[in-house]
Specification:
Elements (H helix, E strand, L loop, with lengths): L8 H19 L4 H18 L1 H6 L3 H18 L5 H27 L8
Helix pairs in contact: 1-2, 2-4, 4-5
Length: about 120
């Protein structure tokens, strides 16, 4: 019995929102690190919203949020502390914690596979 993957609708909406923010950052000649951050988040979100990841790797959401949270912290340490970067970094860190708890609970609820001797 496998765990049911989370709904992809919020991931799709988030990915579309990040794509819009990426386009906005590029169109307004925002700082290059901000555009790269948003573009990376868009690509990672698109992979996370894909059906392949939802079916195969439920831990991907934890990895995705951790990676993007660390990227955002790096931008903050480099001095790109705009409200957008701070908000997205906080969102990625919080979602990473949420997905980690959900993943841990789903692993605890799934019995270990029986080994045939």
């Amino acid at each position: 019995m496998g765990t049911t993957p989370p709904s992809r609708a919020p991931m799709l909406v988030g990915t579309l929102g990040l794509a819009g923010l990426t386009g906005w950052a590029i169109a307004t000649n925002g700082p290059l690190p901000l555009a790269v951050f948003l573009g990376t988040a868009t690509v990672v979100g698109a992979v996370g919203a894909s059906e392949v990841v939802a079916e195969v790797a439920s831990w991907y959401y934890v990895l995705q949020s951790a990676m993007l949270g660390l990227f955002g912290v790096g931008l903050l340490l480099l001095g790109y502390g705009s409200p957008l970067v701070v908000g997205l970094t906080a969102g990625f860190v919080c979602s990473g914690l949420l997905f980690a708890v959900r993943y841990r609970r789903s692993r605890a609820a799934t019995p270990p596979p029986e080994e045939n001797a």
